[in-house]
Amino acid sequence: MRPNWFLAFPIDGSFVLRLPEHPKGLRRFHPNDVHLTLAFLGACTQDEAMNAWQTLDDRLTETPARPFEVSLGPVVAMGRPKLYTALSALPQRGQNEAIELIARFRDALTDAAGARRDKRPPKPHVTIARPRRRADDADRRAGLEWAQQLDLRHVTSKVDRVALYTWNMPRVDGFFRIVEVRSFG
User: Fold this and answer.
1) What domains sit in the chain, N to C, each tagged with a CATH number?
2) 112/115 Cα distance (integer angstroms)
3) In the chain, which ranges are continuous DSSP H helix?
4) Per-residue pLDDT reduced to its tens digit, 102-137
5) 86-91 and 68-78 as β-strands: parallel, antiparallel, unpaired?
6) What's the pLDDT tens digit per position in 58-86?
7) How far is Cα 145 from Cα 84, in angstroms, rounded to an integer?
8) Helices and strands, counts by H and E, the chain
9) Hey, is 128 helix, strand or coil?
10) CA of 150: how far to CAs of 73, 99, 113, in Å?
11) Which one, of 10, 15, 9, lies nearest residue 152 by Cα?
C-alpha cells in the first residue's frame, strides 16, 4: 500500500499533551503530527509529491506568503456526522489567512501530483484526534462528548512555514514525518 502525502503548515502541538484523557475509542495525535492542511495529495508516488512540492516552492518564490498567527476554537467532527474521520479544531484568528492560502495553492498542488482536486470550499482545521479503526457507535459518541468539553481558545501558534508530509514508518514519535520544509519569506 502506498503512503498518503500532503502539504501542511506545522502547528505547535504541545497542547495535545495537556488535553483531558480521551476515550479509548480515539487515537490522540502526537504533538509532532499537529498541522493545518494545505493540500491532501493522497496515495501518490514520492515523485508526484515532489512535483507538488516544487510547484509550491516556485509559487512561493513568485508570490511569498506572510507569517500569521492562528488561535484555535471549537473542536468539530470532520467527515460524515455519524462516521466522522477526525476531530479537528477550527481556527479562529488566522482563519481568513488560511482560507486564502488554501484557495491560492490547493488546486495547483493537487494537479502537480496528479491527485484528485477537492471540490469543497477551503475549511482550515487542525486535527487533534481520530477514531480508532474498530471504534463503534458508543466510542464515536464518547469522542464527540470529549471534543465538546475542550476549550482551546488559549492555544495559539505562528504559521511561518509549510511542509511536505507522509507516513512515519515505524510509527515512533508520531504518525507522520516531514520530508521537506520551507519557511515563509
Assistant:
1) 5-183 (3.90.1140.10)
2) 8
3) 46-62, 95-112, 137-149
4) 999 999 999 999 999 999 999 999 999 999 999 999
5) antiparallel
6) 999 999 999 999 999 999 999 987 799 99
7) 13
8) 3, 9
9) strand
10) 9, 24, 36
11) 15
